[in-house]
Design a protein that fits this description.
It is built from 13 helices and 13 strands. It is of the alpha+beta class. The chain starts with a helix and ends in a 9-residue tail after the last helix.
Length: 408
Amino acid sequence: MGRWLFAVFVVLCAAGSAAAQTSDDFFNPEVLQRVDLWMNSTDWAKLKAAFQENTYYPADVTWNGQTVRNVGIRSRGLGSRSSAKPGLRVDFDRYSDKQTFLGLKSFVLDNLTQDKSGIRETVAMRFLTRLGIPTPRETHTKLYINGTYSGLYALVESVDKTMMGRVFGSIGDDVQNDGYLFEYNYVIGSPWTFGDEGSDLAAYKARFDIKTNDSKSDTTIWGPIEELVRLVNNTASASFEATVGPRLDLSAFVRYIASQNFIAQNDGFNGYAGMNNFYFYRLEASTSHVFIAWDEDNAFLSPDFQITTRLNENILTRNTLQLPTYSSKYFEGLLEAATSADGWMQTEMQRQFTMISAAMQEDTIKPYTNAEHAADRDTMLAFAPARITYVRCEVAKMAGTTKPAGCQ
């Protein structure tokens, strides 16, 4: 083969390899990724100075030898916002209409400022996925800004129509991603536990931020949520399942809250300050809603996190679990989580720690020391065996069955 033909062959092979990359490769949890952002240094300084704002700035993104130009980036987060190490949202179609990358419209760079271990979010999401909870894909990445290492981040799939299509699949040729997607908006100073807010849809508009089909009428968008909340609050237990069930997948809901409890999530659906950190999706051409996990970096609070924590404080949780069928499903969900975690969770934590170790040590921008990271690493590695034993013992105690070995 002549040199010219060989060069063409190499180029074609390289192009074929690049074309073969998919979003699964981008979010491959077994790989520590590298993402480069290239932008005007003045814009980067402005973004960090105005980190509490959602102002977009133009940038180019490079991953695995592929570059996407003219994307939009902005600061993101609530309590995690940082001027030194901003959390970022990257939108491929901000300035170029319909531009995508690997089929993605956007992704999130979680700055891990609230997680000294660096793995709470990523382990929690992989575990919830194992349990059948709709979750975004996640892995870790080293982030470079204009060629300079800017810290270890979690690389997070955006919860959007693309993800809905991946999670809910297709019926024939119809991708099931044209339902109504909401991001729950925690209203500071107004914690909510699914209480009836009345018939005025403004209260629900404030709490449920519509992400798809936003051109529809308020009644079409938020009316079904108001109806669901009203029925949850006012339906007698004898008819609760028949009335509420068509509007909310109760089995999926119970699996979700049992899974969150197992990982000791203190700031989730049954959170310490009311409901928080989830998306809500009304399925396409349906009245049924499901919960989607989001922002689990406050998980793994402690191995002895009580299995009944705040179950009576949230009205939806309380009224669902008052039904024996769903109360049983809740405890079954805890035991299923314990079984799934046994032999997997601690191993997965150790794998992730090994993968991110050097990148974490080299991250001089993180708001905690390497010694603090090491201490939190040890705490995390001790969580799984202690939690598994605790949950199994507590479920046996409440059920009045024989306690497994290790119970006090």
